[in-house]
Amino acid sequence: MRPDEGGLTYRAAGVDVARKAGAIARLSAHTRRTHRPGVLGDIGGFGGLFALDVSRYPEPVLVSSADGVGTKLKVAQAAGRHDTVGIDLVAMNVDDVAVQGAEPLFFLDYVAMGSLDEATLDALVRGVAEGCRQAGCALVGGETAEMPDFYAPGEYDLAGFCVGVVNRDRLLDGRDVRPGHAVVGLASSGLHSNGYSLARRVLLRPWGGAFDLDDRPPELGGRTVAEELLVPTRIYAPALLALRGRVRLAAAAHITGGSFAKNLPRVLPAGLGVELRRGTWPEPPVFGLIQRLGRVAPEEMERTFNLGIGMAIIVPPEDAEAAVAALAELGLAAWRIGTVTDRPGVVIRR
Predict the structure, then answer these.
(1) How far is CA 210 from the centre of its chain?
(2) What are the record's GO terms for cellular component (predicted)?
(3) What average pLDDT does the chain have?
């Protein structure tokens, strides 16, 4: 059947290519805010272009990461607030790159939704651009997928991809970690982007929890539940890079899904472990609220949530105080929370 005979079109099937092209063109204002030396061109090509400065990195090692935001997106969609989860997306990627000593260079995003909502798309990419600005990397491109029948109205998904660079002799791989080294924890901004399948079931009524989005439990200090759950993930990459010249940084671990038990061993030499002591850092009240209302066992909390520590660094014990002081100057609260041991695994003392 020909179009002039009333045949079906791509637009009628749910994908408006012309509208999508116009929306993407308007996003360039957000991407240009993130440009840094090395960026070539603008969005719209088949690939983002970046020229590596080999005078700064004569033996460059490229470090890459891919991640998403998880079911925190369900909270954003239920609350109708889409301007912060893009920051989460960037944080989950750039901090994975930074813990290996790399400077995040550029970022790409993937946004998929059932039917293009231009206001939602603009808010999402605005958040991604803000995250890139905070991290010091460039948003050089991405993909917007309109997928009718795949996502329900109002639903979308996000994925992000980051590339960073470190000179080979500056690669942070944990090989210098020794028993007796100090573990220093950097404060999280809250739940970050992990554990939301459990947090939603405990806290939010649409998933069987205790509160509506606009409720203000006294434990949250005046914030609504939605506001607490949508606090963006903290971006540590610039602070980690600045710290390299001030203390002897042996390793760093991004405390994400699986919390301490999963993430700290990833940066330890074989045969080593860590002992942490709860109570050496303040835990944001949201974690206690989840534990109490959900009757969640302490062990389950410790393997699900960051409990107030979003990043951990490992330094010689004589550098621990200097690391805490340097991080304070960089605007980050930090505490000595544990010690590297000669016994594999993560032990948490209470």
Answers:
(1) 27
(2) cytosol
(3) 94
Residue of 311, 94, 328, 321 lying closest to 188 (CA atoms): 311
Tell me how far apart the alpha carbons of residues 187 and 285 are, in angstroms, rounded to a whole number: 13
User: What are the tokens at 228?
Assistant: 């607490």
Place of tokens 């970050």: 192
Confirm whether 176 is domain-assigned. no
- The predicted pLDDT at position 342 comes to 97
Residue 177: inside a domain: no
- Number of structural domains (the chain) is 2
Domain CATH for 29: 3.30.1330.10
DSSP for residue 208: T
Q: Cα(92)–Cα(67) distance, rounded to whole angstroms?
A: 6
Tokens representing 48?
A: 């983002």
Q: What is the pLDDT of residues 92-142, one digit of tens each?
A: 999 999 999 999 999 999 999 999 999 999 999 999 999 999 999 999 999
DSSP per position, 243-275: HTTTS---EEEE--TTHHHHHGGGGS-TT-EEE
Matching residue, tokens 């996502």: 151
The CATH number assigned to the domain holding 234 equals 3.90.650.10
What is the spatial distance between Cα 139 and Cα 90, in angstroms, rounded to a whole number?
A: 10
Give the predicted TM-score (pTM) of the model. 0.93
Query: Is 175 within the bounds of a domain?
Result: no
Tell me which of 139, 170, 201 is where a domain ends.
170
Tokens for 52, please give them. 């590596």
How confident is the model over 23-28, as a mean pLDDT?
76
Question: Distance between CA atoms of 19 and 9, rounded to whole angstroms?
Answer: 14
DSSP code of 284? P
Range of the domain at 230: 182-349
* Pair (150, 238) in one structural domain: no
Q: Write the DSSP symbol of residue 235.
A: P
Q: In this structure, is residue 256 part of a structural domain?
A: yes
Strand 345-349 to strand 273-277: parallel, antiparallel, or no bridges (unpaired)?
parallel
pLDDT in tens, 161-180: 999 999 999 999 999 999 99
Same domain for 326 and 187: yes
Predicted confidence (pLDDT) per residue in 299-335, tens digit: 999 999 999 999 999 999 999 999 999 999 999 999 9
